Amino acid sequence: MDVRSGPSATEAHAVIKGVTRVFRLPSGAALHALGPIDLELKRGEFFAVVGPSGCGKSTLLDVLAGLAAPTEGTAMFEGKPIAGVPDGVGVVFQEDASFPWLTVEDNVAFGLRRAGVDAAETKRRVDYAIGFMGLRDFAGAYPSQLSGGMRQRVCIARTLVLQPRLILLDEPFGALDQQTRLLMGDELLRLWRETSATVLLITHALDEAAMLSDRVGVMSARPGMFIDFVETGWERDRDSRVVSKPHFGEITARLWNKLRSETMKIMGVADRAPDAARKSA
Amino acid sequence: MKPDAWIRLLVVAAFIGAIELLCRTGVIPYAVMIPPSEMVVELVAILRSGEMTVDIAATFGNVVVATLIVVVLGFVAGLAIHAAPWLRLSVEPLLASYYSVPTFMFYPVFIVLFGIGSAPIIAIAVLLAIVAMITATLNGLDRIPNVLRKTARIHRMSRVSTALLVELPAAAPYLFTGVKLAVAYCFIGVIASEFILSGSGLGYEIAYAYNNFENRKMYALMLLVLASVTLVNMVLNTIDNRLQARQRR
Prior knowledge:
The complex is a heterodimer of chains A (281) and B (249). Chain A has 281 residues and is an alpha/beta fold. Chain A has 8 helices and 10 strands. In chain A, the strands form 2 sheets. Chain A has a 6-stranded mixed β-sheet, with helices on both faces. Chain B has 249 residues and is mainly alpha-helical. Helices cover 82% and strands 0% of the residues of chain B. The mean pLDDT of chain B is 93.
């Protein structure tokens, strides 16, 4: 395994302790969606979360983003308890969150204008983000004139200009084809290297988690809890070409071995894998 | 212009041409209908003389006032119904069956309540149009993607900022459909009411001309109403198409 030479800082940037999330259903019954869960994100770390559908991955992100309060436990960002959306946190959602009535340029500038950043600084940051995301030729276009991948880049640029210290990504490439996802992954890695932000990526794609992150947390079926943490050991200066390395296959295999039985629990099917395969897993 | 627009124009032109021909050859007697070209000549003469200016102003004034009331009241009522799910549950079936009620039958009630003049005319137009605006508002609010509201929260926007800067523009295309329908219903409501409970306005003048066998005047005024609603609709459709095109994902 490669020697990990990722972010040198080991300071805890975001911490979750004993967090649970219980939803009250319309019938009055309680649905235990998450936890209890513990997680410590180091400053500058790229952390991915994988887990079976409905295991509470997005709920975990909502707690960190301050969009949902935990039922039990505490969530902290930069040493302060999370109550409401904290300053310095940016979120990119799976769904297209671009504003259809604004041009690409105005979409990207939206948060800066809201924050009262002066016009010259706004223009400088917007120009940089638009260029960084390869949208320079489409600055005056409306989202309806762009492809799904380009619209997602608009959303990433809108988050990027605010210079968040913690970037939360909820399956941001879920709606994209495999090639576009790989290339968007490269752009995300470039963004992460340049900003030194801490990144938490929720994904259902094991290859995406294995390729992009320093560390992958594997979650169990509902109520979601971490059942394994996998250190990928990649260099900080990496891109999508790591998929050709044998180590990439090892990481993906380990993630799948952990996830397989959890996914089967969700589907309600018994494990019918041959004995030999079960032993090797 | 796109090919389908040319075809549409051709169909309308052919229809007008056919009416012109049937009138000129006497298949349609002059006492029944005058040729469209004469309608235009008569309309220009009426507009030049200024004899109808007061009536035209009264009708369009009533339409504008009724539309403004419908848009504001309909939007506010839509917001209130959307905000209270229990209210929506009980009111929605009534809204769905609303247009089965012949609104005009209430005209004696409005005369008793508001007297003669613009007030009962505006009241009937509002009654006719308001549910279309309420329904459009509900539809617009329903269709705001939840992810846009979440984005507003991530930007730490207040409830008012979220409503004005995110929800309103996101719902705008659907709200505008309501405005479009409100204008159309208000035109119908105002002109039809003028036929039965007014002493002025285009509807009254058309009915008056009809009762006095003034065919030329009657058709000229009908043409004026048709041309006006067509023009207003074209403008509204252009805006609507632009809004809808931006909303497409």
